[in-house]
């Protein structure tokens, strides 16, 4: 079974909040659509306050995208473990997301178009 992945510019301005604080805002987000999964917004690393992110030892492997590395978000009131992932060297078909960051939405972590 083949999975179709499309990557397009995510129009408008996007923000990421963690623990109530805005840790990123961009007009350069990408939207990745993969099969029947919900779309994922990827943020350029330069538009994220990287001081809030702590590199994790966790990695996962995707047969379509490659190896993802993870970060935890260290907010004032809580640490959101492995809430961020990035494909530093993705497979050729999804090379556009190289170095971008995606966020696992959860209680206290939101991705919003503003």
Approximate helicity band: under 10%
CATH architecture: Beta Complex
Report the total helices.
0
Number of domains: 1
What fraction strand?
A: over 45%
Oligomerization state: single chain
What is the chain-wise order of helices and strands? EEEEEEEEEE
Sheet bearing the most strands, described?
Answer: 7 strands, antiparallel
Note the topology.
Blueprint: E1 5-9, E2 14-18, E3 21-26, E4 30-34, E5 40-43, E6 53-62, E7 66-74, E8 79-86, E9 101-103, E10 109-113
Antiparallel strand pairs: 1-4, 2-3, 2-10, 4-5, 5-9, 6-7, 7-8, 8-9
Question: Which properties best describe this structure?
Answer:
single chain; 114 residues; mainly beta; Metal Binding Protein, Guanine Nucleotide Exchange Factor, Chain A; 7-stranded antiparallel β-sheet; 3-stranded antiparallel β-sheet; 53% strand; globular
Word description of this protein:
This protein has a single domain, classed as Domain of unknown function (DUF427) (Metal Binding Protein, Guanine Nucleotide Exchange Factor, Chain A, Beta Complex). Strand 6 and strand 7 form a beta hairpin. It is globular. It is built from no helices and ten strands. With 114 residues, it is mostly beta strands. It has a seven-stranded antiparallel beta sheet, with no helix packed on it. InterPro entries: DUF427, DUF427_sf.
What would a concise description of this structure say?
This protein has 114 residues and is an all-beta fold.
């Amino acid at each position: 079974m083949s999975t179709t992945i499309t990557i397009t510019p995510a129009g408008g301005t996007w923000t990421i909040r963690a623990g109530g604080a805005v840790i990123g805002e961009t007009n350069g987000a990408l939207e990745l659509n993969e099969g029947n999964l919900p779309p994922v917004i990827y943020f350029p690393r330069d538009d994220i306050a990287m001081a809030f992110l702590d590199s994790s030892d966790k990695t996962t492997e995707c047969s379509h995208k490659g190896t993802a590395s993870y970060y935890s978000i260290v907010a004032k009131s809580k640490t959101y473990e492995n809430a961020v992932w990035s494909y530093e060297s993705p497979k050729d078909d999804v090379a556009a997301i190289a170095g971008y960051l995606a966020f696992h939405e959860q209680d206290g972590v939101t991705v919003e178009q503003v």
